[in-house]
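Postdoc handover notes: sequence design on the structure in folder B. Input tokens:
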């Protein structure tokens, strides 16, 4: 994923895959939730479930991808138009999250085994929406944040002390690169101008003005 093209600096996703089942008027609605990072990955899960549940009448799907949630797809898979995929997508897109940033990088597949009682268009919309919402209620959501990585050269004798003091101050420290003449400490901060300014001030104090920070790259991390 090319994080440099993203405007968003945080979003919410699944901590892992899950499955949850509801029975509504004798029909079984089995909801699978997957954490995915591409359309290809989403469609691979969908294809696998079609084989696993080959005897089910419908395999309806919805997914949202990317930090900015720009990719959104849904499919009714034979249910009346707009009664399955769209309400499933709405349940994902409108999910309130404590972590903030909206829900993304998530695929929902609802496998329906028809129970003999027709639900009608309104009933189907409610059923598919409830199936996804209930599955989300029973899974764990986590935040993801885009970090800007800065490097700080330090003498071998002082690198460990700098690392410890930076960790104690709440900074995320990535693995230090130990080179022949110096250590290269890697520090992760939220990718905002305010956080960068704060880090520069902190490093100036920590190193008595001798530290020379350099911006490296960005990366997305799970907030656990």
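Designed sequence:
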């Amino acid at each position: 994923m090319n994080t440099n093209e993203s405007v968003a600096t945080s979003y919410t996703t699944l901590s892992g895959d899950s499955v949850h089942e509801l029975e509504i008027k004798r029909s079984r609605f089995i909801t699978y939730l997957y954490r995915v990072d591409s359309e290809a990955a989403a469609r691979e899960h969908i294809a696998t479930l079609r084989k696993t549940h080959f005897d089910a009448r419908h395999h309806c799907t919805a997914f949202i991808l990317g930090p900015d949630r720009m990719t959104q797809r849904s499919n009714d898979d034979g249910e009346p138009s707009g009664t399955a995929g769209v309400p499933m997508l709405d349940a994902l897109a409108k999910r309130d999250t404590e972590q903030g940033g909206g829900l993304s990088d998530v695929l929902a597949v609802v496998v329906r085994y028809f129970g003999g009682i027709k639900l009608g268009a309104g009933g189907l919309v409610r059923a598919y929406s409830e199936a996804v919402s209930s599955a989300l209620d029973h899974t764990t959501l986590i935040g993801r944040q885009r970090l800007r990585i800065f490097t700080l050269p330090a003498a071998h004798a002082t690198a460990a002390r700098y690392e410890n003091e930076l960790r104690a101050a709440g900074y995320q420290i990535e693995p230090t690169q130990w080179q022949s003449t110096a250590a290269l400490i890697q520090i992760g901060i939220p990718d905002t101008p305010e956080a960068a300014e704060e880090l520069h001030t902190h490093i100036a104090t920590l190193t008595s003005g001798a530290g020379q920070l350099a911006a490296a790259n960005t990366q997305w991390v799970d907030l656990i």
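Context for whoever picks this up: The chain has five helices and ten strands. Don't rerun without checking with the PI first.
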